Every structure is written in C-alpha cells, then in structure tokens.
Structure to design on (236 residues):
C-alpha cells in the first residue's frame, strides 16, 4: 500500500508541485532580482513535497541562530528529500550549491538559476576554487547564507569524508559555519529508490562555529570539526 501511494499519489503531486511552483518562481524572478521571493516559493515547494510524501520533519536548535546573520550551513546528505526538508524547516534566506545536472532540469533548473543558486563545477581544481570564491563573495557582499553538502553527493550508508569547500567559504566570508544533521531521511527515501515512505525525521542545528581570526590555512581543522559535529548530531 505504501508503494502504491508513493507511485500514484506522492510522485504525481510532487511533479505537479514542481511544475507549478517552478513556473511561479520563474515569473517572480522578473520582479525580484534578489532571489528572496523565489526562496519563499521554494520554501512552499519544500513543505508541499513533505506533505505529499506524508513526511513530518521536526527542527531542533533553531534558537541558536540569529535570524538576521549570514551563515555557511553544512549538512549531511542521504536522500533527495533532504533539500525539501531544509527549505521547509530552516527559516533563513540561503542559496545552495547544486550539481550542474540539476540546472538542466526544466522548472527546477530554471528556479535554481533565476534564484541565484550556484553551480558546482568539479571539472578542475581551478574551477572548483572559482566556485567556492564566488560563494564566499555572495555571503560577504550580499549577506545571504549558503548551504553545502560537503560529502559531495548523497551517501547510501554512513557519513562520508567532507570536502573542504564549506570551511573555505566560511573562512573567506568571515561568517560562522553551522553544522546541520538530517536524521531519518535515508529510511524515508533511500538512495536509488522512488518509494517515498511516510514517516518522521529530525533536522538538528548545531552550535555556530566562529571563523574569526582563522585563515585559509585553518580550513582543514575547521573541516574536521564540522565533520565531527555533523556526525555527532546525526547519531540517533
């Protein structure tokens, strides 16, 4: 019954929601170049996807965040439902880094590009550095937070080693890095599956880690600390 509900109710509703709200986001982008309105539309999209999948996500630790301060959010990544969950429950304006392939998907890709989200370019070390520097500039000059999944993609099992991009951006932008853990999402929509299982998950926000006084040479140590914090938060 759960599989049938996922295939014939949740999946079609998710598709329709993506098309409708992606179109709304595209139209809004012609009137708001900041991306803030598009982010509000994306937040509604995230809530819609959670409702369509009968998924409830409880947020913990939001009181640790200054609603007016920019951050570099660092999260684990185990499911396609992670982004809708973070959009729905994290009450901050933020932009995230996404694989180039996502920008090619109709409606979703249009929203990503027009809302100011950033493409991850891993074609070479120089291209990756340029992408990270662009992210730091967005945070520093526009005062907008960014979200990264430093594992480099979804993980089917345990937390994978973090890449140093998030730590680099936080240090270059001079803003705190915030570890975030999503717990329970891997069971709701496992990697490689299209079966969305109804259930509950938790989004845990850790203590912001100050980057004051740090230099780019400290990025490995900050990266390791972020890994340890996300690992601790993601334990059931």
């Amino acid at each position: 019954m759960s599989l049938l509900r996922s295939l014939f109710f949740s999946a079609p509703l998710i598709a329709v929601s993506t098309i409708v709200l992606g179109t709304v986001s595209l139209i809004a982008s012609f009137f708001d170049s900041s991306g803030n309105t598009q982010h509000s539309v994306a937040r509604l999209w995230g809530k819609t996807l959670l409702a369509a999948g009968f998924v409830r996500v409880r947020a913990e630790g939001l009181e640790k965040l200054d609603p007016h301060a920019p951050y570099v959010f660092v999260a684990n990544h185990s499911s396609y439902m992670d982004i809708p969950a973070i959009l729905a429950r994290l009450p901050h304006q933020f932009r995230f880094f996404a694989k180039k392939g996502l920008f090619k998907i109709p409606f979703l890709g249009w929203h990503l590009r027009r809302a100011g989200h950033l493409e991850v370019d891993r074609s070479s070390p120089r291209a990756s550095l340029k992408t990270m520097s662009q992210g730091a500039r967005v945070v520093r000059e526009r005062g907008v937070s960014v979200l990264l999944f430093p594992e480099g993609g979804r993980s089917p099992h345990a937390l994978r080693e973090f890449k140093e991009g998030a730590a680099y951006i936080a240090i270059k932008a001079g803003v705190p890095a915030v570890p975030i853990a999503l717990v329970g999402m891997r069971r709701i929509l496992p990697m490689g599956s299209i079966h969305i299982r109804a259930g509950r998950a938790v989004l845990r926000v850790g203590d912001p880690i100050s980057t004051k006084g740090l230099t780019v040479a400290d990025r490995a140590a900050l990266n390791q600390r972020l890994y340890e914090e996300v690992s601790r938060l993601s334990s059931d």
The first helix runs from residue 2 to 29.
